[in-house]
Prior knowledge:
The protein is α+β, with helices and mostly antiparallel strands. Helix content is 23%, strand content 22%.
Amino acid sequence: LRECNDNAHSKSILDAPVKHLIKLDVPYGPAMYVRPAGAAAAAAGGDAGGDAALAPAPVAGAGVGGEVAGGPSNDPPQPSFKLTPTGRVCNQLYDVVNFTITLRVDQTQIPIIIQQVSKNRFISVRKMNLLRVDSDAAASAGFIYGPAAIAELTLDCEQLQLREWTVDLMPKLIREQVLIGPGEYQKTLAPKKAVEQTAQSQ
């Protein structure tokens, strides 16, 4: 968002494309991820004694045709267009994270803003909602956005996180019951030189 305003050479909120970050919402627990359909028992611990908080749930912004997210996924990438318009679901290479962001923006700059959100960030915008903002009402509440027509823009997005970058930081329950499973995750994308140096040091 800062880059979007910087690229427009804006000097203040009055001439900036992005006026106001209202909300950034990342779902808690398993709903954060777009997981392959099925394998529900695995995500819940395999029996009634599993952690109820990790039971699979429909993914916000996805679930085309009533499809429900499943359990651990450590398979090669396979598209699933019943879960998300992009077809991307968690796999051994990357995890797919849901989030929504709500902004107040210059209405004429919406295409540029969407492009900037996606640029070089592994982020895809799956859906957008648009509401017109009454600038006078906003001003009376203390928010001065300038002369442009203002819209409240809500973007439903997904971000790809390469698993080798994040696996060591995952909470144990997420790692074992939601994404990878109890087995050891084998890293395959480590630079060859780094692997050789590690082997030589041992």
